[in-house]
Amino acid sequence: MLTGPVETLTYLGGLLADHEFQLGVWETARAFGLALAIAWGSGLVIGLLLGAHRLTGEVAEPILTALYSVPKITLYPVILLFFGLGLSARVAFGAIHGVVPVALFTMAAVRGVPPVYFRTARSLRLGPVATARHILLPACLPGIVSGLRIGFSLTLLGVLIGEMFASQRGLGHMVIRAMETNDVRLLIALALFLVAVATGAGALLLALDRHVGRRGAGPR
Amino acid sequence: MSRAGLIRTGVIVAALAALEAACRTGLIDRFSLSPPSEMAISAARILASGEYTRDILATFATVAAAAALSIVAGFGLGVVLYRFPRLKRAADPFLASYYAVPSFIFYPLFIVLFGLNRWPLVAVAFVFAVVAMAIASVDGFLSVRPILLRTAASLRLTRAQTLRHVILPAAAPYLFTGVKLTVVYAFIGVVAGEFILSGSGLGYRIAFAYQSFETATMYGLMLILLTAVVSVNMLLWARERRLHARLTR
Q1: A36, B19, B145, B187: least surrounded by Cβ within 10 Å?
Q2: Domain A21-216 falls in which CATH fold?
């Protein structure tokens, strides 16, 4: 029923040279890249705005937490009805998975900056740009990087789920088709490939997270 | 209600009214999105007719089973990692990058292993949720202040007594956060699994209604599911806030 590791690796080696597989990887990578750019960009902006204005943050936080907890796959048909069956629907679906954690982490990071930092900035007569550059950014970078890391994972999850349901392209679709044709060898090879790529990227972001975190926790 | 709470209610009501107006005036095409009032009517009709009761119960039972298994196993894993720090150091990189792997890609594998019934759903939700509980448990145990452990030692408590009377109460807020995440992840796992490939359950019914262009039914079912998830989450969230308030006291 399952295939052994050596057989899977050999099969995956052959798969990497396969044109159809490369096309699937390209489709997924394209959708994921766009979704990630949207999720990171808008998550940062939303998080910064909500963090900067306390009342707005308090109003929005429970709404964002509720959105975070909802199984977003439920909303996928709505996205499909609005965006149609294509790249934009998959991008939108990936982005809504990633944007909430990035916004929540950024907001918490901005809020967590001790007020004494801003008082110091004022007493040093720093302008708004200099304050943002030299005080705000270094102080909340560790929190923001953690948020970006979680946003990365969830966006990838969103894009793959989007491809698994109602899509004709990408690795997610290949997984589902392999299942329907009972091609266990292909299924396990695809799973291995995705695990390797995701863990590799996750480890890189984690190293960055730790690096920034150490610097942030440094001399105070 | 606090000022923020009042404004929040106002914002939500205004958003719903705007959505209703946009649908009624034809700004948003009727086929894509039902007005919220029609969603509510459709949801009420679905609940009253009992047509989908079996699917709703199946989904909730599966979520409950997956969450219960994940909480027990995750807690156990947390205890093991806490007792063997060397094991924890070895496992740390895997735990930290665990959620980078989209565990749903294993769902088809679970179907191959368990057959086309509810167990692959339990398995995929379990795989998705159990690590959150394990991480929260071990974080909670490690957050217990050393002075409490020294007090326990000076009172000559046994290991089991220390765990029961000192560590568990002290780590309770963290454990509860783990429970909350586990429930949330179990919901996501089960519903997504039902959506992609299953023959029953709320997720399957929503996907089916989408594919057969029954927009009203689809939005009714969606509203039922989202209301249930958000209510459960809000209850857990309120309880969690009370527990965490204890920490800062």
Answers
A1: B145
A2: MetI-like fold (1.10.3720)
